[in-house]
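Q&A FORM
Asked by: J.P.
Topic: structure of Polysaccharide deacetylase family protein

PROVIDED:
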Amino acid sequence: MVLLSACSSVAPPQPNPEIEPIRFLLSFDDGPSASTSSNPTAQILDTLMNNPVQPEIKALFFVQTRAAAAGGSVQGQALLQRQQREGHLLGFHTATPGHANHRFLSPAALEQSLKDGVSDLTAISGIAPRLVRPPFWNYDERTFEAYQAHGLRLLLTDLSANDGKTWGINGSLRRRSNLRDQLARAAQQINVGALPAVDGVIPVVVTFHDLNPYTARHMQEYLQILMDVAEDVGLATDKQPFYDNRDALQRAALRRALGDPQQYARLPGLWNWIWN
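REPLIED BY: S.T.
REPLY: Here is the structure written out as tokens.
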């Protein structure tokens, strides 16, 4: 006789009612895209504005203001204006002709890059940027102090789609499990009170790359995946699970910014192994 038994699934853990709900703080690196057809940055902006998960999401874009394949192009300049106009927050990434590692720039070159980037973004938004994310996630005490001298706070991330490779095979078959694993690690910090609440929610920083066509095509799916994996790991999301206001977004990002360059911070993917 063959005995058949139904497979039983394990119920996800229940959220702790004494812990504030989370809200995902979406950030994007390396853009805006200079592409003249199927522009991935434009596609992402369209999805953030119109999607069934939460319409009119506001995100933080760490931009390259002078790179030929990004903000230095006609298309890139128009997209920077669109990002500002649609209520997103602009942060500094680079103001060099390419995606230069700040640690490898001379003091004079780094200083000029920071001056140029702050000037470029101030011209667009009317106020100086407050946030920076270093290229390749690489920084040291020298670059950290240079950022602070220009009023810039360094923001890292809790979750990364690991989508920085934007050419060739640039998709991910593990996008759901990857984000779940990272959020489970963040949940451990949340459960012991290591991540702060801001305006009644706990900001969880998520990073994508808006130059990646695969990311652009799957942005709506990524939004739903974030909702799903929050439930999987037992984290309650706020009734507005993503930021919808630029000022609130900036307050949260500034609160999560790194305060000490000597403080250990886990970096995404291989970068953690390379730099840490």
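FOLLOW-UP: Residues 22-275 form a domain with the TIM Barrel fold (CATH 3.20.20.370).
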